[in-house]
Design brief:
Layout: H1 14-36, H2 39-46, H3 50-56, H4 60-83, H5 89-106, H6 108-119, H7 127-145, H8 149-167, H9 175-182
Helix pairs in contact: 1-2, 1-4, 1-6, 2-3, 4-5, 4-6, 4-7, 5-6, 5-8, 5-9, 7-8, 8-9
């Protein structure tokens, strides 16, 4: 994702400014992780002053969690949209899997932010929120797909393999997972 900050004095709504900050935060946290990311760099990417970040978010942790929550919500809506139109649990999971790969390839920052969330989960102020978001996503996929829990677990295991191999530039190692998501069973 490339962020372009407009030099024009176009007035933005508070929601637009918040989204602009979350876009910049997603990029910065994806690239550097929670601890090394800088709110000064986020402000610069967003084209705002650093103090303005704190008018929108009380602290760096809340900014990280908001960016992570937005990414999870986008992932959830992608899965739910993909599952529509099918009555078969296996086909719903397959559709979700097929929708996932283009999603993370289209915006690498989303993939990396997801992984940075897992990496930061050792922080007691971040871990519970990241864990709750992951569990809620798992539960939503299970509910919407109607698939048995072991199949949903396999779906997520394949997703994690795809995440790691994509992030490392070793996507050829994900071939078995990709075949599983593409196979009509």
């Amino acid at each position: 994702m490339i962020l372009i900050v407009s030099a024009s004095p176009t007035r933005r709504t508070s929601d637009q400014r918040r989204d602009q900050v979350l876009d910049a935060a997603t990029h910065e946290f994806a690239a550097h992780g929670y601890n090394a990311a800088s709110t000064a760099a986020i402000a610069k990417l967003a084209g705002i002053s650093q103090p303005y970040i704190y008018a929108l978010f009380p602290n760096k942790r809340e900014l990280f969690l908001a960016a992570h929550a937005r990414m999870i919500d986008h992932l959830r809506s992608t899965f739910l949209q993909a599952a529509r139109g099918s009555e078969d649990p296996e086909e719903r999971l397959q559709r979700m899997g097929l929708a996932y790969r283009p999603l993370i390839e289209a915006d690498r920052d989303q993939l990396l932010l997801q992984m940075q969330g897992h990496a930061a989960a050792g922080d007691p102020e971040i871990g519970p929120s990241v864990a709750a978001a992951f569990k809620a996503l798992f539960d939503d996929v299970r509910r919407v797909s109607g698939a048995p829990e072991d199949e949903v677990a396999r779906f997520f295991a394949c997703g994690m393999l795809i995440n790691v191999t994509t992030a490392l530039g070793l996507s050829e190692l994900a071939a078995p997972a990709l075949e599983w998501t593409a196979a009509a069973r």
